[in-house]
Design goal:
The chain is built from ten helices and twelve strands. The strands form three sheets. The protein has a five-stranded mixed sheet with strand order 4-1-5-12-6. The chain has three domains: 60 residues; 119 residues, 3-Layer(aba) Sandwich (D-Maltodextrin-Binding Protein, domain 2), CATH 3.40.190.10; 102 residues, D-Maltodextrin-Binding Protein, domain 2, CATH 3.40.190.10. The longest helix has 32 residues. With 290 residues, it is α/β, with parallel strands linked by helices. Helix 1 packs antiparallel against helix 2 and helix 3 crosses helix 9. It binds glutamine. The site of glutamine has 13 residues, from loops.
């Protein structure tokens, strides 16, 4: 209901009260009856006002998009010093959505909980360097791809670890984040084939914890399998290095709830539009120039 509608309703209610008071005065009704009438009018008015107030709230919520991410994945999503979540994905999806008139909120959720959160409407879109896979396509809808990646093997700088082929991984404890394509690669290629014992496969909730363990030393974890651009970002800090590339040809997409075609179309249109502007080049420069 708009302002005009509200005014009309209130005016009608006012006329109604006036008419009632006049008519009651004329008929000289009992005081008790008057009180009852006035009480019910006040009740109706309260309901009208309440409904208007509520509809105002829904309108505001409809315009708000909750972005779910796992802020442990630089340069795509990570926490700045002041703890705000920034990164290539976050800036990009925020730009796409705010350009289309939405307000946005970013929520930091474990990677493995992102798809369930989307399915239960706790979030509206996933921006988490999420690879478009056949399996995930059964559960969510993906935007057009916006970034390519492979997997890479990270080890600590200065420790006697010799990994030059996939086969060499069997000699070490290998870590990955639960629910990721890196985790699935280790599981399917090494553990399921018997090349790596499951005791030597360490699952982490967060990749930042995996890298922290790697830096502590091989007694915690010897090697981590992680998306190549993120491996690069961690390696730039100097404590860890990439020793092997694993070609998996992955594409990242933003995910929406299955069937949310309206939001998906808006994201795809926005992505195409942003790619045609210098905002895109600036974003690449900001997060990938080294
Ligand atoms: N691209 C990987 C995947 O989709 C890792 C994503 C992540 O850890 N944020 O599984």
């Amino acid at each position: 209901m708009n302002f005009f509608g509200v005014t009309i309703v209130l005016l009608l209610q006012y006329l109604n009260i006036t008419a009632l008071i006049i008519s009651t005065n004329l008929r000289v009704r009992s005081i008790m009856e008057n009180k009852k009438k006035i009480f019910s009018i006040v009740l109706v008015l309260a309901m009208v006002i309440g409904t208007v107030a509520l509809s105002g709230c829904t309108q505001e919520d409809e315009n708000k998009i909750i972005i779910g991410t796992s802020a442990d994945f630089p340069p795509f999503e990570f926490k700045a010093e002041d703890q705000t979540i920034i990164g290539f994905d976050i800036d990009l999806i925020k730009k796409i959505l705010t350009d289309q008139g939405y307000t946005v909120e970013v929520q930091d959720i474990g990677f493995d909980s992102l798809i369930p959160s989307l399915q239960t409407d706790k979030i509206d879109v996933i921006a988490a360097a999420m690879t478009i896979t056949e399996q995930r396509l059964q559960e969510v809808d993906f935007s057009d791809p916006y970034y390519d990646a492979n997997q890479a093997v990270l080890v600590k700088v200065g420790v006697p670890i010799n990994i030059t082929s996939i086969e060499d991984l069997k000699n070490y404890t290998v870590g990955a984040q639960t629910g990721t394509t890196g985790w699935a690669w280790v599981n399917d290629t090494l553990v399921a084939t018997g090349k790596l014992s499951s005791d030597n496969f360490k699952s982490y909730d967060l990749y930042t914890d995996a890298v922290a363990d790697l830096i502590i030393g091989p007694e915690r974890v010897g090697a981590i399998v992680i998306d190549s651009p993120v491996a690069q970002a961690f390696a730039e800090k100097g404590n860890v290095k990439i020793v092997l590339d694993i070609i998996t040809n992955e594409n990242y997409g933003f995910a929406v709830k299955k069937g949310n075609t309206e939001l998906l179309a808006q994201i795809n249109e926005g992505l195409t539009a942003v790619k045609a502007t210098t905002y895109w080049d600036d974003l690449i420069e900001e997060y990938f120039a080294s």
